Structures are given as C-alpha cells and as structure tokens.
Amino acid sequence: MRKSPPAKRNKALATLAVIGDEIAEAARYWFSTLKPRKPPPLSEFMTDHARSDDGARIRPFPFQSDMADAFTDPQTEQVSCRKSSRIGYSTILQCFVAWRIRWSPARTLFYQPTIDDAEKFSRDDLDPVLQWDIVRQVAEFKPRHPDNQIRAKRYKGGWIQIKGANSPKEFRRVTADDVLLEECDGYPWATKEEGDPARLAFKRNLTSPRRFSAAGSTPKVKGFSRIDALFEQGSQEYRYVPCPHCGHMQYLVFGDGTGAGIRWEPKKNPTRVWYQCQQGCEIDEAEKAWMDENGEWRAHNPAAFPRHRSFHIWAAYSQHPGAAWGEIVREFLEVRHDPNLLRTWVNQVLGEAWQEKGEAPEWQRLYDRREKAMALGTVPSWPCILIGSIDVQRGAGARLELDVWAFGSDRKRALVDHIEVDGAVANQETWKQLDRHLAREWPTQDGRRFRLARAAIDSGDGTNTMSVYAWARRHPGFAMAIKGRHAVGVGQAIAGPTWQDLTIAGRKIKKGVRLWTVGTSMLKLELYGALNLEKPVDGDPYPDGYVFLPDGTSDEWIKQLVAEQLVQKNLRNGRSRAEWEQTRPRNEALDNAIYARAVSIALGVDGWGEKKWRAAAGIERKRRKIPPPDEQSELTDVETATVGTKAKAAQSKKPPRRANPFTSRRR
Ligand SMILES: [Zn+2]
C-alpha cells in the first residue's frame, strides 16, 4: 500500500498558492484527484457507503468496526468469525465485496453450504450491493448480461463466484485470491474421495500471491465444529467491555445464574433483566452502547495476531432490538426444556457449539413409534440406496449379523432388514451363507427391487481381522473393511483407505486389502440426535435426518441401537474426557448403524440432488456381476454404488482378466 504523497508535490502546491486564490483552489483540486489515494479501512468505507435494503445508511457498531478492518488489513491473511446470528456479519461481507470492486479488484470466491444457498445469497445479499452508488461509479452490472450471472459476476479487474459446498464439482478448476466460507459448519461432512469441503475451498487460493481467506459460521456440535477449530487456530479474540460502575473489563457471557452473566427476575416471567458484572455490579441494558464504544478486542492467542484473526461474538453485544438481553432471556425460557430447540438456541443466540450429552435415547419410545406403514424386509418408497453392515461375533453363539439400511435425501434413513448368519468365523460355509444374503434383492411395496450398493464389515476385533480381510478382498469395490475410532478429524466421519497386509492360509500378501477408519463418536452423536427427533403428527412432514424403524423391528435390536452413552471421565491431570460407555451387554445394532452411515457419507449421499437420487433409485434394476476376486477397486461414483454382489461369481475359478465393472463404468 502506498503511503502519503511525496513531499515535492506539496511544495508545488505551496508555490502555486501565491499566484492567486482561484488558481490555487483549482490546482489543489487537480492534484487531489491525481494523488494516489490509499484505500480506506473497511469500517470507514462502511460508514460512508453501506446501505441497507431500504437505502438507509448503515453505521457499524464499534465491535463490528474492528472485525471489518481485519478484512482489509494487508497484514491479515485470514479471518475466522464464530458468531451468533443477528450480529451483522453478512453486512461486513457485503461491504467487503463493494470495497473490493471499488478499491482492489480480485478473484473472489464465496462458498455457501449448498448451491441453493449460493443462489439465494447472490439474489438477496449480493445483487443489492452491486447497485450501491459507490459500486456503480466503477462497475456496471447489467441485468441478464453474460458478465452478470446469478453465481458468476465479472467486473474490470476481477470477478465474484458463489458456489455451493454440497457438490464436489464446485471445488474444481478455479483459482481465486479471496476464499470466503459462509456457514461452514453447515457444509456436508468430508467424503472419502473428495475430502473436507472447507479444506478443499481453502485450497482454491493457495497459489495466489495476495490470498485472503475468511470463514464465518454459527457453530454446531462441539468437537466436530469447523468454525470452532478455525477459531482455535486464530488469535481467539473476545470483546472486552468495561463495567460502567467499576470499570472492570470483561467479555459478556450468558452465565448460569450464579456468577457473571445475564440475570433476570422473577424466574418465570421476568420483568427485570440486567447484566451481572464479574465484580457484582448490576448493569442496565441502556449502558450497552457505551460499553461497546469503550470496549476492545483482546486476543487470547496473540501468537496468531495479526496473520489469522479469529473473533467470537454473540447476540448480547448486538444493539438490534431483536437481540435485547430481555429478548435473549425470553427465548431461553421458551426452549430450555426441549433439547432440540435448546441446541439451536445455543448455536444461534450464544454462537457456541452444542456440547452433546450423548444420553441414550429411550428404547421404549422408539419401539412404540415404529412405522406401521413400513415392514421389516421391505425397502422404503422414497428414493434411496441400500447399504449393508456386518458385525462379527465369535465364541459361543458365533455368528455374523447383517443389518441393511436405506439412505435417502435430507439425511433420512430406515432400517430395512436384520439377518443373523450362524456359524463360526473360521468356517468358510458361514461366509458363503453371508454372500448369499448379500446377493439378495429387497422389494419395495410397489414391486421394484433393490440390491445392496455397498457392505461395511467391522474388522476391529483382532482375532477375526484376517478372516474379515480375506472376505473383503474377495469383494473389491463392494465390501469395505472398517475400523472404528473415537474421532478421525474435524468434520470428518470416515478416513482412508489405507492398505493392509493380510495372511491367507499361511501366505502373506502385502497390501492385500483396504481399510477405512470411521470416527464413531461423531456418528453416534448424529444418530442419537436423529433418534431424538419428534415423530410428526397429523400428516406433517418428517424432519430432516429422521430414522425410520419399520414394524417388526425387535425390542432387542432397538435396545442394542441405544446401548451406549457418552460420559465424562476425569483424568489425572484434572481435565476430563468424553468417552462412550456401553450400558447393555450387546451393541451390534449401534455399530452397524454407524458403519452403514459412514459408508453413505463416503459415497457422498449428503450432497446428492434430486436428480441423482432418482438415478440411484432407478439403476438398481440392472444386474451386474461381481468383479474378479483378485482385483481391487476404488470407490467410484454413485452409479457404481447401486450395484449388488453375486456370490456365485465370487467363487468362479479363473476369472477372465478384464476391467473392473465397478470402476470402468465411468465415462
Ligand atoms: Zn462492575
């Protein structure tokens, strides 16, 4: 950035001044237009040029000013904002776009959670900005012009593209200077082939010499929140404000009614709401503007400052009437007894990730609400894919347990079948029986037939691992050997695969089979959250993520599905760690449910659009043979995912050497 103009120009101005006032005035104006001006910091630009939807001026609140300036500070490469709603973050982004166009054209890439969100953002948030006076002075965005498409805008020296994080295609073939993530905790989880969407997005500007990255989101689940992780990496700035009575600097918290925080009385229908200072003073809401005015951001991780600035901000600081302390309390009292609503409130109002308790849902409630219209052994009527999951039991009562799950759009899932294959794991006949079940077709109520797209098998138990590997090796591209781990990474449910050596009949085979690692904790929390969703009444639609259990599901199976809970274990160093604890002797249904879900994530089903679901549901009628046993294949795209296995083919003696149908079908 250039600094103030050179001194000799000032000298010239001074000389001219003696010639005459009028000429001097003209000359001063002339020079002022020539003078290379320094771009203003974003907060100043906001004050001068930002307009709300009705054309009114927007004055940034003090807490917003510093956040905004981080976007245009040349020393700052990255900004992460963990936030509640109603704090004006999108206004900052809007102003940043206008500032770019006016002062510093660049290739700017936005990522919204979905392509639909991207279009909505473009229409509602971006298009109005492009009509601000300050933008129109330098760029014209004509309606229906090729340079002004919904998700791609071009102007002199730069462009803006808005993408959806729900499609892998959105991360390809584009290089940008700015990468701006919106609501990144709402992105789909990482798939095995594509990786984490947030990480992929940030790769888009790695080669830019002037790269700038930013992410803003309300956080979702503790331990799996991307914005939480980004906040931790950054400077971790909190807004400290002075108490108007004692001057003590502190950042605002909701509190638990004992120490500092928002307080109210009476407890049920409060008529008085105030903020309790850390030193005990009672602060009236009318002081809020003054407090912010005299506040400052303080970094808890100054090592990252100013390179990566991260901010935590929540509704209590906002001066919008909808975020008044009394309003925050009123909403809390409404939702406090409903875990689902409370969770949303914690995310949206406090701007904090929800600490999932991991309490096991009640099995009786799930048993009583089984779907009368669905029967065990039948595929749901909605478009879906089937994924099998196999648990290996040894010792007395040795058997394989196969659960078949259907996955559909909006993260809904249904149990389709539960099959037990008795027999010792060491016995080949046990595995042949399993193959016969896996090769089956499952009917829908209207007579269509479905086969399994994939089958996951738990290889975790060391004793059986070689048998499991050997079986998985015979079904490349169809069977996925899986090992569970508490967690594999932020926002990631399944990782790998890694090559594993195996021994068959005394012969060691190097890198003979692939092994996927599944982050079980995250998926258990997701399942329990889904099981806690209320079943709709009076024909209302089922909520997203609903788990359908058909009529005929046994009580034993349901008990197994909820057989663990998350407990806090105290460690010696005074900290505590969350651990899953088994509350019943058997938990195979839970493990199987988690592994099937992990496979669905690996296939990327969370990002599928309607068209892809229909294609997936239509393709299963075609039959294809299982690939030759000695070929290993990658997981490929959807179409290959909906083909089943044929046990007979797997046993054929000398398979012809040919391309694997699971991979070669790609065109
Ligand atoms: Zn005080």
Automatic annotation (TrEMBL):
<dbReference type="InterPro" id="IPR046454">
    <property type="entry name" value="GpA_endonuclease"/>
</dbReference>
<dbReference type="InterPro" id="IPR046453">
    <property type="entry name" value="GpA_ATPase"/>
</dbReference>
<dbReference type="GO" id="GO:0016887">
    <property type="term" value="F:ATP hydrolysis activity"/>
</dbReference>
<dbReference type="GO" id="GO:0004519">
    <property type="term" value="F:endonuclease activity"/>
</dbReference>
<feature type="region of interest" description="Disordered">
    <location>
        <begin position="620"/>
        <end position="667"/>
    </location>
</feature>
<feature type="domain" description="Phage terminase large subunit GpA ATPase">
    <location>
        <begin position="60"/>
        <end position="297"/>
    </location>
</feature>
<dbReference type="Pfam" id="PF05876">
    <property type="entry name" value="GpA_ATPase"/>
</dbReference>
<dbReference type="Pfam" id="PF20454">
    <property type="entry name" value="GpA_nuclease"/>
</dbReference>
<dbReference type="InterPro" id="IPR027417">
    <property type="entry name" value="P-loop_NTPase"/>
</dbReference>
<protein>
    <submittedName>
        <fullName>Phage terminase large subunit GpA-like protein</fullName>
    </submittedName>
</protein>
<feature type="domain" description="Terminase large subunit GpA endonuclease">
    <location>
        <begin position="308"/>
        <end position="613"/>
    </location>
</feature>
